[in-house]
Amino acid sequence: MKSQFEVYLRLKPSNSQSQNAMQYQIYQNKKLQVLLPKHVKFGLINNSRDNLDFNFTHVFDQKSSQEHVFTNVTTPVINSFLDGYNATIFAYGQTGSGKTYTMSGAETWQLRGIIPRALSYIFDEIDKRTKFEYKIYISFMEIYNENAYDLLEKRHLETPLEQWNKIALFEDDQNNIHLKNLSIHQCNNEQEGIDLLMMGNFIRQVSSTPMNQSSSRSHCIFTVTLEGCDTTSETCFVSKLHLVDLAGSERISKSQVEGNLLNEAKYINLSLTYLEQVIIALNERMKGANRQHIPYRNSLMTTLLKDSLGGNCKTVMIATISSENDNIEESLSTLRFSQRVGQLENEIRRNEKVDLEAVVKRLEQEKLVLIRELEQYQRGGTSNTSNKKIQQQQQNLLPQSSGITINQKDIQEKVELYLNERIPSLDVKSIEETQRCFEAMKDLYNTRMKEYVTELTFISEKLQKYDEILTRKKEQSSFLEQKENSSPEIEVYRRNESPQITFKKRSNQ
Ligand code: ADP
Ligand code: MG
């Protein structure tokens, strides 16, 4: 299924006087027209033009609330994620334009952003979808100076960033990337998810010193992994939702940085430059150019988001811009980048697989029941249900009492006991009774033979089917194992311990 990238724009409220405010018009919540100020000199922009148009899935103006943004952008993406498709939402824009405000939110619960709202929505929805059993896992990482770090490792609270374990990338022989040193946490409810988000954000803040200000200079990826198993059909799926807060997109020349900061800015800008190159390459390929190589490997961020950018993923970008004229060059650069992203599309598919464990368990149980039944038949007994059936048939088959003192039911029971070797001999008192006994035996014999033949045919057919299914599942299992080993999913290490620090959800909703 094709999935076009969706690109949203959010304008940060302006603080400045009207003479410094960016001049723009929004048309039908879909188009932003920027009126270029006379004094601005743009290398790339034709000076003869005085306005530029940019199209979006939706434009959120300065007054748009967090809730409004969430409902419009995120709800359809998360529904798709809950149905088993991978999804990514990433925020792109210069430092201070509102990426973190949009993704994580501000200080109060009311101003919470997309990530905490997504967690609430996910847990509410899975409660409603009772046909499935779900498991949710969370991981949170930061990419800083081309190194990735686990933001949910509580030891990082006590140690400086330089001493943290770096997340290691491994490449398998099918060129898929696997990760080491990233913890993944099973999460049972919204509060646990929010605690993890807050712990990660806190670790991110304490790692940031005035010297490195890593929060605006690093990329952050909050990943929710969902495992859902259909309780009726033995099928399962695994989907991933990446919520990404990218580093500021401003250019080095303007950031006026020195020494270590210059190094950081270089890395940040380099990885965003590489992101742009990946988007350009994907665009060219979409337009039919013979472009086999997409340069994902040039930076850690593009390597990690390879699937989001050009793979099996429904991807949404939120471009954030400031509404000041001082920032117009950066804003135009963000707007131009977003137009390229908006042209892309991915081929998405549901990550479904058969729950082999459940299938094998069910078949094993069925096999046991069948073996037990077979043994019972071989010993000469019948199951309760077949006994009842035979008795009903016998009531109809045996002739009615002739009026002489012979109890038909007694004869039938006596014959059954005799045939089942419960009594050694048949005690008969008259020729008529002997005749009745023979008739009862003949009828019983015929009925039971028919039952045996039917039941045995049924059992042998079921056993044959069972063997066929088991062979198929074994083949499928080895096929899926091969596929799984070659899957581009991030390999993570699960950790049982939960973080000691807990944060409480604010109640002033
Ligand atoms: P970024 O992450 O892009 O560097 P932030 O999200 O940290 O930027 O935003 C910078 C400041 O502006 C923060 O104080 C934030 O609360 C505020 N801010 C950003 N966007 C909005 C908005 N849409 N409405 C109100 N305040 C905002
Ligand atoms: Mg930020």
From TrEMBL:
GO molecular-function terms, A-Z: ATP binding; microtubule binding; microtubule motor activity
Database matches in PROSITE patterns: KINESIN_MOTOR_1, KINESIN_MOTOR_2
Basic and acidic residues compositional bias, start-end: 475-497
Region (Disordered): 475-509
Binding site for ATP: 93-100
One GO BP annotation of this record: microtubule-based movement
Domain spans labelled Kinesin motor: 4-344
Coiled-coil residue spans: 346-380
Keywords: ATP-binding, Coiled coil, Microtubule, Motor protein, Nucleotide-binding
Residues annotated as transmembrane: none
Pfam family, one: Kinesin
Family matches, as InterPro entries: Kinesin-like_fam, Kinesin_motor_CS, Kinesin_motor_dom
Cellular component, GO annotation: microtubule
Family note: Belongs to the TRAFAC class myosin-kinesin ATPase superfamily. Kinesin family.
Protein name per UniProt: Kinesin-like protein
Lineage, uppermost ranks: Eukaryota, Sar, Alveolata, Ciliophora, Intramacronucleata
